[in-house]
Amino acid sequence: MPYIGYEPAKKPLTSADITDGVITSASISDGTIANADIANSTINLTTKVTGTLPVANGGTGLAALGTSLQVLRTNTGATALEFATLSSDYVLLASTDASSSATVSFDGYFSATYKNYELILSDILPATNNTNFTMRLRKSNADITTSNYRTASHQIWSLSTSASAQQRSSWNGSSIEALTNSQYNVATQSGNGRFTLYNPLGTTSHKKGSWIYNAIGSDAGTDGIFHIQGSFQLVDNANALSGITFYFSSGNIASGNFKLYGIK
Question: CA dihedral defined by 216, 259, 211, 208, rounded to 10 degrees?
């Protein structure tokens, strides 16, 4: 507008000089607001965003969550992300802690879902000193005590004065007694190992398994750490097994954790 007299001094335009509603989106040219015009931390993503962010822009391309315990994965065609139930080939089926237990048995856990089974043995301690860790298989919810176990194992001793190795075997025994040899019952010297059982529900072959175990014990009166590994067959018949039992040849299992896993 024209001025009469002196022109007023120039001053910056402030928000107070602009009446509410004067500037509308129609008054703003497309592309004129740059990233530098937007203050940091001012865009609220919880209310200011619509649509689904695609994978190409760092999103998932998904508009909803999956169900409980599902995981996000790439689909079989490698074309998009999807939620799916996690499938594991190595699954914990049961766990128990021994406490002055005569035996620890797992029965009824074998199923068609898993072909083989593994037991992880942690901090196994006998109540009686210098005793052997022993195992029997089970059929129809009962231990198999007939003389049909055959075992072969190799034991390595590292003694305070020397080292030695020993081959051990048992032909038609009533249990597998070579899981350990003369283990001590000192809490700081507990035993650890793993036991694998192959296809216990099969009905065409004798049942077979293998193990690895280590602990502290005595060899001819000399202290030492031993490592023993071996395998076995149960040759009574080819009937399916129902479970497995662990115990010491003398006294109870003072303590220890036993975990049974199924392997597909």
Answer: 150
How many distinct structural domains can be found in the chain? 2
For residues 155 and 165, is the Cβ–Cβ distance under 8 A?
yes
Residues 48 and 167 in one domain: no
Q: For 48-61, how does the pLDDT look when each residue is reduced to its tens digit (9 = 90+)?
A: 888 898 999 888 99
pLDDT at 53: 87
What residues contact residue 87 under an 8 Å CB cut-off, 6+ apart?
none
Residues 197/244, Cβ–Cβ less than 8 Å = yes
- Convert the pLDDT of each residue in 104-135 to its tens digit: 999 999 999 999 999 999 999 999 988 889 99
Q: Tell me, yes or no, whether 237 lies in a domain.
A: yes
Position of tokens 């080819």? 238
- Do 124 and 220 sit in the same domain of this protein? yes
What does the CA dihedral 94, 126, 171, 211 come to, rounded to 10 degrees?
Answer: 40
Examine the domain organization and report whether 77 and 151 are in the same domain: no
Does 124 lie in the same domain as 252? yes
CA distances 87 to 82, 109, 119, 121, Å, are: 15, 19, 20, 25
**Long-range contact list for 145-149, CB < 8 A, 24+ apart?**
145/174, 145/175, 146/174, 146/236, 147/172, 147/173, 147/174, 148/172, 148/234, 148/235, 148/236, 149/173, 149/174, 149/175, 149/176, 149/232, 149/233, 149/234, 149/235
